[in-house]
Amino acid sequence: MSFWNLYLLHKVYPLWLRKVIANIIGFLIIYPFVLYNSETALMLSIFLSVFIYRKLQNKDYINDSVKNSSDLVIYQLLASLFCACIFIFNTWKIYVIQVFIACIFLRIYDFYKPSLIGRFYKIKDNIELWHTLSSILHGVLSGISVMIVHTIFNKFAIYCPINLNI
What we know:
The chain is mainly alpha-helical. It is built from six helices and no strands. The radius of gyration is 16 Å and the shape is globular.
């Protein structure tokens, strides 16, 4: 067991499924904080990102599997934490729908890497820094995308069970 695999995800073999499970775990962890206070959730996300960055700077902790991207699912958890801080919801049903859409956007942004995220991959000196910054940007872009889709769907009353009037 290791920090890289979130202690139980090393038994899941497809990488995409491992990353989706890490996203769902992140959304479940942050839900109570976002439900009552989004600022506290944002501070917790920032704290965890700094903790992960500092933990990964320890060169004894990093092994040869760092070069293998299958062990970097911890960054998907971090992206989901930042993504959930942007959500606006008032029932758990809307949160579940937004989480589903966010998982799709997180997968899209992880696969295609838009130009903003791709710029962090040019930082070759500090690999932990660019992984952390790109995962934060993944989360923020996914959260903004979810809120845009939510606003469009809410405007046309497509899926939203309760009108948010945002």
